[in-house]
UniProtKB/TrEMBL annotation:
The keyword Transmembrane helix applies. Pfam families: Cation_ATPase_C, Cation_ATPase_N, E1-E2_ATPase, Hydrolase. Belongs to the cation transport ATPase (P-type) (TC 3.A.3) family. Type IIA subfamily. Residues 9-83 form the Cation-transporting P-type ATPase N-terminal domain. This is HAD-IC family P-type ATPase.
């Protein structure tokens, strides 16, 4: 096929081979309607299908959980016992948990729907010798598709004829710049981002036009493969949710086993009737079962979610993701727009006379020029002024401030020149455009002919140094082309892009740019060094996260030199290492897995590579977060323990596949979110350490009573009151507990580590025994001494347990001593304590409550005993804490001394 100037097409032999392979007799005529219909019937429509699970099935399976079984069992027990208030509360918890789980699962199918929507709705094809528009779903392999600027590509195409064609593929490959297309044959293992002879479904035509043969449709396209990967990914439970499930299972089995044993012992003793014993055992089960645990966990997570939205510009879509943040130890992140601004910036201007540094990043025109460290004015430097004007004029991009943010319409590289110009000049040059030669991938430069205010005609040229420098040599044989080519190579190795700028005064008779005009010779003005700059705040954030034991891995579609240079600037590692997707594919399984775990920078990656890297990190025991914004990130976002998408620049597909969205697009928000996640995990653990021993104390009171064959000090309604009043008041004090000092100075917890260590178990055991033991002793002492009636004694027992909870709360709230600066750090703790005290006074003195729960008013003696029991709980647990703090200080001093001695020796 012959092509006019500016166009390229494949050789006749390549075209013939492609036609034969796809069975297309005539490229100009395209397929016949009959043949297209036949292929459509055989292979199906060019569409993506997502086989979603029915909504009602998703909702029903939310009840398939051990913790829900425990709650249902507790609800049945309270219903049988006639305590409908508690039944209603537990039922609400069950329904809320189901709704939350349903909404989490439903998000995954939404991501698939968004991918389906990315396919173009119409396509321009050649059918029966005519160029017609057809429904994109009717495209088949072998169709000849015509593309022009502004089109979305409807299927994967092998290009065979192009005219200055470039594509915007950032969403698919992560490449920020438009990709210049070719028709040349490429090796079979060419990475996705370098397949310049292909146009992929869902990408957009930036400039030019072209024709291509459909080689893949629907699920077989690169977009379809991503869609299938998203559908196939199954995210497991978070470590904490798994541990809570196991904890609930262990507790329930232990309580049921204890209940059976106690029932057997009670029957064997013959002291109780079957009815009395059964009621006592049911009371013990209800009292011991921590039915408030799921509610407390859910509320702590939900409040943490709200705080992330309100304070940290972070939307968390799933409750478990809030907690997972705290255990993240690896962040795999896209580069463009995440670690960098995705705003090309000129950092240096190198003229034949000087090397100017340029400050400021992004498209906002704030910054200055400096020479050898001293600020200079562009207006006073002729060489700098001429280059900036030439770069500004040889340009067809616009820069504008929209809602306080500077945005470009056109090529990022051109935008960098506009910004640099406005850093030196407020007004635009008063030049008149006569003609323009747009950039073309054949000659890789652009030129514009202008009339200056004095009538002089001047040609401005901007483009690739290997094209512009020979033009300068044509005008001046003494021009040192090799020097500037070596400079270009040096900056390129640092991941920077170098653009050459030139100009030439022409006679007034020249008013158009003709073929070969530039090649006749131009005056070299200099080089502009351009980079997509790292976000300044990211550098500090990565440093802080490394101190917190969180490693950051960069995964990008960019060139390895560019990626490595950015990684060094960011301080990603002391000596960052890089590997490409192609290199990974050539490794054996063991070497590939090791590289995925240990490498800092992954370049030229495909969506499949990103998914494999995240999977390898997880299988190595890392809790992995994936940060991305493109369609190509979606499978990895869904697979990661927590997927994080960008709110402003992120695609809808990425947002739907992610668990969390950074609404401000700032990677630094990850640092704050991780700190918030660690705080939330700490508070969940504190609430569990608080809830379990106080619940066990209730069960122990009944168990000890049965073993000692004594009269029951508490009835079922009183047990339920203790659980209910705690669940709606004091347990929620942990929602507002602030972060412990130094929370980001410690390493992330291991996902294999147990939530509770040996001391936690020991403390739960002795606190349970202490509260129940002191309560029983006080109850029996007052009752046996004839000081109070049985009703008053049982009322006092309830208040002993409640006050024990209140005093124990001050111990559990902080790792520091209770009576320290941390005492008033959570004002809401005092609010919920006040609410609990009011409820207890109503429980003790309100006649209606006395009738329902069989209670009676207490004298100062009984209140003194109850308060004294609570003080004992606080004193003992604080003594325990004091011993542990002293031991840690001693161990730290000993370790420091050993290190110092080792260095001296």
């Amino acid at each position: 096929m012959d092509s006019p100037d500016g166009q390229r097409s494949m050789t006749h032999s390549e075209v013939a081979a492609l036609q034969q392979e796809l069975k297309v007799p005539d490229l100009e005529a395209g397929l016949t309607s009959q043949e297209a219909a036949k292929r459509l019937a055989e292979n199906g429509p060019n569409a993506l299908e997502s086989h979603t699970t029915p909504k009602w099935v998703i909702f029903i399976r939310q009840f398939n959980s051990l913790i829900i079984y425990i709650l249902i069992g507790a609800a049945v027990l309270t219903t049988v016992m006639g305590h409908m208030t508690d039944t209603i509360i537990i039922g609400l918890v069950i329904i809320i948990n189901a709704i939350i789980g349903y909404s989490q699962e439903n998000n995954a199918s939404n991501a698939l729907e968004k991918i389906k929507q990315m396919l173009s709705h119409e396509a321009t094809v050649y059918r029966d010798g005519d160029r017609v528009d057809v429904d994109a779903a009717d495209l088949v392999v072998g169709d000849v598709v015509f593309l022009e600027a502004g089109d979305n590509v409807p299927a994967d195409l092998r290009l065979f004829d192009i005219d200055n064609l470039s594509m915007q593929e950032a969403a698919l490959t992560g490449e920020s710049n438009s990709v210049e297309k070719t028709v040349d044959a490429l090796p079979a293992n060419t990475p996705l981002a370098e397949q310049s002879n292909m146009a992929f479904a869902s990408t957009a035509v930036a400039t030019g036009s072209g024709m291509g043969l459909v080689v893949a449709t629907g699920k077989h396209t690169e977009l379809g493969k991503i869609s299938q990967a998203v559908a196939d990914v199954r995210k497991g439970k978070t470590p904490m949710m798994t541990e809570l499930d196991n904890l609930g299972k262990g507790i329930s089995y232990a309580i049921l086993a204890a209940a059976v044993i106690l029932f057997g012992l009670g029957m064997w003793s013959g002291h109780y009737t079957v009815g009395t014993l059964a009621l006592a055992v049911v009371t013990m089960i209800v009292g011991s079962m921590p039915e408030g645990l799921p509610a407390t966990t859910s509320v702590v997570l939900a409040m943490g979610m709200q705080q992330l939205v309100r304070k940290e510009n972070t939307i968390v879509k799933t409750l478990p993701a809030v907690e997972t943040l705290g255990s993240v130890d690896v962040i795999a992140t896209d580069k463009t727009g995440t670690l960098t601004k995705n705003e090309m910036t000129i950092t240096n201007v190198i003229t034949p006379h000087h090397d100017y540094a340029v400050s400021g990043t992004g498209y906002r025109p704030t910054g200055e020029f400096s020479l050898r460290g001293k600020p200079v004015s562009a207006k006073d430097r002729a060489d700098l002024r001429d280059l900036l004007i030439a770069g500004y004029e040889a340009n067809d991009t616009t820069l504008a401030e929209i809602d306080g943010k500077y945005e470009i319409n056109g090529e990022p590289t051109d935008g960098a020149f506009l910004t640099a110009y406005h850093k030196g000049f407020a007004e635009e040059p008063d030049y008149e455009e006569l003609d323009m030669l747009p950039f073309d991938s054949d000659y890789r430069y652009m030129a514009k002919l202008m009339r200056l205010p004095d009538g002089q005609h001047r040609l401005f040229v901007k483009g690739s140094p290997d094209k512009v420098l020979p033009m300068a040599e044509s005008a001046d044989p003494a021009f040192d082309t090799q020097h500037y080519l070596e400079l270009t190579r040096s900056y390129s190795r640092q991941g920077m892009r170098v653009i050459a700028v030139a100009a030439e005064d022409l006679p007034d008779s020249v008013d158009e740019i003709t073929e070969g005009l530039c090649e006749h010779g131009v005056t070299f003005l200099g080089l502009a060094v351009i980079i997509d700059p790292p976000r300044e705040e990211v550098i500090a954030s990565i440093k802080q996260m490394r101190m917190a034991g969180v490693k950051v891995r960069m995964i990008t579609g960019d060139h390895p030199d560019t990626a490595l240079a950015i990684a060094k600037k960011l301080g990603l590692a002391d000596s960052p290492t890089v590997v490409t997707g192609t290199e990974l594919a050539e490794m054996d399984d063991a070497a590939r897995t090791q590289a995925m775990i240990s490498t800092d920078v992954f370049a030229r990656t495909t969506p499949a590579d990103k998914l494999a890297i995240v999977t390898a990190l997880q299988e190595a025991g890392n809790v992995t977060a994936m940060v991305g914004d493109g369609v190509n990130d979606a499978p990895a976002l869904k697979k990661a323990d927590i997927g994080v998408a960008m709110g402003e620049s992120g695609t809808d597909v990425a947002k739907d596949a992610a668990d969390m969205i950074l609404t401000d697009d700032k990677f630094t928000t990850m640092e704050k979110a991780i700190a918030q996640g660690r705080r939330i995990y700490d508070n969940i653990k504190k609430s569990i350490l608080f809830l379990l021993p106080t619940s066990f104390a209730e069960g122990l009171i009944i168990a000890i009573t049965i073993l000692t064959q004594d009269n029951m000090p508490l009835n079922a309604s009183q047990m339920l009151w203790i659980n209910m009043v705690s669940a709606i008041t004091i347990q929620f004090a942990f929602i507002w507990e602030p972060a412990e000092p130094g929370i980001m100075a410690r390493p992330p917890r291991s996902n294999t580590a147990s939530m509770m260590n040996w001391h936690d178990v020991f403390q739960m055991a002795y606190v349970s025994l202490m509260i129940s033991g002191v309560g029983l002793y006080a109850h029996d002492w007052l009752l046996d001494g004839g000081y109070v009636s049985a009703t008053v004694a049982s009322t006092m027992m309830v208040n002993i347990i409640i006050l024990g909870k209140i005093f124990y709360l001050f111990n559990i709230r902080t790792h520091a001593l209770a009576l320290s600066r941390q005492f008033f750090s959570n004002p809401m703790a005092f609010t919920v304590i006040a609410a609990m005290v009011v409820l207890q006074l109503a429980f003790t003195y309100v006649p209606f409550m006395q009738d329902v729960f069989r209670t009676a008013g207490m004298s100062w003696l009984e209140w003194g005993v109850a308060i004294g029991a609570g003080v004992i709980t606080l004193v003992v647990t604080e003594a325990d804490k004091l011993i542990r703090l002293a031991y840690r200080k001693w161990a730290h001093r000993t370790h420091s001394a050993e290190v110092t001695e080792g260095k001296l020796n």
